[in-house]
């Protein structure tokens, strides 16, 4: 009998986190699922641990770190389940997590492409880490409810996109979209997928009963590479799918976002490297824009209404003033 769900766990040197993640999966009340661990060239003992933990876990191995998007796409391509769940190694799912997501997606209309979990801070489970993401016109992908009490956002709701660290997707929608954009390597590829699905008329919902503890950046990249990738990927996300009319209308906000993060990261050479990396992807951006135009099923006004919201970051002027007072140390 085929499993209802394929749980894909991308892994890169996650030996310290895998025990909690896999124990959490073993304790799931829903039993009809398979687990696929996709290893990105780990140098630790995480692959051996996963294989010893449960011989039923399928392991896909790469010889090098090919990025989050490549890893999850490999897991999706091998999936046997009707639904695909993505789960980061630095998570511990509550026993009811997967069952709550499956029941909610079963009850949702076909235009619901997938679901976001209530992600709680692993170090402080009384606080929300993420209750679905939203996108601002400054290019900020914001964790909804981050740092708020765990009791916040108690009702199901529509979100811009789910965090791929703990989400459930219809496999057919993932295949229709061509999976995650592998040029992102890591960071913001889940928001990009959420945006591309929205352009085709799909929606994303938040399921508060589906709780997962999440460390956040537990298996992240070094800071300098993070800045380069996020700088590049933010531009990639905004320009490969958004209609030109919206890019022009919200150009001041988009420029503000670039200046803001240039100041916030305080790594100008890494930021510049990110901009140069984006320029190398312009041919891909142009091809993606042609696909987005051809397959768009919603109006520009409908899309514009789903983007926006207030981020918690201080205004740029205040950020710069703070840096000057500290001597930019």
3D architecture notes:
This protein is of the alpha/beta class and 329 residues long. The chain has two domains: 5-214, Spore Coat Polysaccharide Biosynthesis Protein SpsA, Chain A (Alpha-Beta Complex), CATH 3.90.550; 223-325, no CATH class. 42% of the residues lie in helices and 20% in strands. It has helices at 18-26, 46-53, 68-77, 97-106, 171-177, 189-199, 223-241, 244-249, 251-265, 268-279, 282-295, 300-306, 316-325; strands at residues 5-11, 33-40, 58-62, 83-87, 91-93, 112-121, 128-130, 133-135, 141-143, 157-159, 166-170, 203-214. The strands form two sheets. Strands 1, 2, 3, 4, 5, 6, 7, 10, 11 and 12 form a ten-stranded mixed β-sheet that branches. The chain has a two-stranded antiparallel ribbon with strand order 8-9. Helix 6 (189-199) packs parallel to helix 7 (223-241) and helix 7 (223-241) runs parallel beside helix 10 (268-279). The chain is globular and about 50 Å long. The chain starts with a strand and ends with a helix. The model has no long low-confidence stretch (mean pLDDT 93).
Quick structural gist:
About 40% of the residues lie in helices and about 20% in strands. With about 325 residues, it is of the alpha/beta class. Strands 1, 2, 3, 4, 5, 6, 7, 10, 11 and 12 form a 10-stranded mixed β-sheet that branches.
Present the secondary structure layout.
Layout: E1 5-11, H1 18-26, E2 33-40, H2 46-53, E3 58-62, H3 68-77, E4 83-87, E5 91-93, H4 97-106, E6 112-121, E7 128-130, E8 133-135, E9 141-143, E10 157-159, E11 166-170, H5 171-177, H6 189-199, E12 203-214, H7 223-241, H8 244-249, H9 251-265, H10 268-279, H11 282-295, H12 300-306, H13 316-325
Parallel strand pairs: 1-2, 1-4, 2-3, 6-12
Antiparallel strand pairs: 4-11, 5-12, 6-7, 6-11, 8-9, 10-12
